[in-house]
Amino acid sequence: MLKGVKVGLRARHEEDIPILQAGLYDDVVNGSRAEARPWRPLTPGSKALPLWTDDEEDGHVPFSVVELDGGALVGTATLWGIDLHHRAAHIGLGLLPSARGKGYGTDVVGVLCHYAFVVRGLQRLQIETLADNAAMLGSAERNGFVREGVLRSAAWVMGEFLDEVVLGLLAQDWKPASRAR
Question: In sequence order, what are the beta bridge partners of 167?
């Protein structure tokens, strides 16, 4: 397990899937804001659910996020779109409603940076998030990400187009906290 101050990132367990599906995916508004694909209802246990993992896919590393104090499952984190030629990847996360507003997002982003830069040897990380997602923007910027641009009306969400913000962080600009281990 990779550890931050408040949370740990561990492998996704099969028993995590129903909790994450109920708390993140089945919430139509949250699911529509988090996924690039249109939301659609999925049967519990369906392998089409984006929360299932494939240990053979090198370009996508999903984690379950757990509290260090007690081990409760609080969300999901992903290093995705890993490009080994350019040594770049994207990161994303989703916290269960009960875990929001506790500083876990900032900790998760920091641990993902540690994993990407130290463990995987990547050079660049990127985040794309909706322009009104203050929590993700704050978590990214507290970890050193820089706003690189706005993609105007790039996301179709619940009947309207929304802007997306692109943030980037280079390995040489990352200030690792002594907390990730």
Answer: 127, 147
Tokens 């899937």 -> residue? 17
Read off the pTM: 0.88
Sheet architecture: strand order including 146-157 = 2-3, 7-10, 60-67, 73-83, 88-95, 124-130, 160-170, 146-157
> What are the pLDDT tens digits along the chain (181 aa)?
999 999 999 999 989 988 888 888 777 777 777 777 777 777 776 666 666 566 666 788 999 999 999 999 999 999 999 999 999 999 999 999 999 999 999 999 999 999 999 999 999 999 999 999 999 999 999 999 999 999 999 999 989 999 999 999 999 999 887 444 4
- Other CB atoms within 10 Å distance of the CB of residue 161: 10
Gap between the Cα atoms of 148 and 90, Å rounded: 14
Give the number of other CB atoms < 10 A from CB of residue 165.
Answer: 21
Task: Find the DSSP H helices in the chain.
Answer: 16-20, 28-34, 104-114, 134-142
Which contacts qualify for 95-102: CB closer than 8 Å, 24 or more apart?
A: 95/65, 96/19, 96/20, 96/23, 96/24, 97/23, 97/27, 98/23, 98/74, 99/65, 99/67, 99/74, 99/75, 100/135, 101/135, 102/6
Nearest to 74 by CA among 53, 95, 93, 91: 95
